[in-house]
Request: fold
Amino acid sequence: MKIRAFIFDIGNVLLRLDYTRAQRLLREAKAPPPKQPDLAQLAQDYERGLVESDEFLSALSGVYGHVVDRETLCMAWQDMFEPNAPMWEVVSVLHSHFPLYLLSNTNALHHDFIVRNYEIFQKFSDGVYSYRVHLMKPEPEIYHRAIQQFGVRAEETCYIDDLEANVEGARAARLQSLHYMDEAHGDFVETLRELGVAMPLT
Reply:
């Protein structure tokens, strides 16, 4: 069926994640190793919107033994992204012909940071974010929420994600879905062409 809209994941699709930046900043602040699994559970609760940013940063300070100041923790948590330039080129092409939307497991600090610092997000009409709706991919409800909010027909909408589980969740919601792998970007562009999406040759 013809594609009439696109929904994008963010992490490792539009932006690559580079945790070494945060790790370097924390080392410079002489932070001890984080307490596990405290950090993993805290991050998940924050992405689901179960805790607010102030509460999250206070808890994060505890994970690092209360030896890192709040400003450094906030910087380390936010500055872990870099543009995926080839995908930005795809988005620029698609933006001229299709409505574009976002569906992401993310948190308030990350979302605020990337929207403020990366102009690519101006090309997207709307977004559904886990921390706002208290749902996370691949839970079925979050895909249906996005379809309804964006006002799209699932069968005519292409969803793009780097995690296979999230792609399968989208397919279960009847979205046309593509598994994106950064190292196979050329194959991804070719798949778009096979789906009838006009893409320039590179």
Notes: Residues 53-63 form the longest helix (11 residues). The chain has two domains: 5-16+82-194, 19-78. The domain at 5-16+82-194 is CATH 3.40.50.1000 (Rossmann fold). The chain has a mean pLDDT of 94.
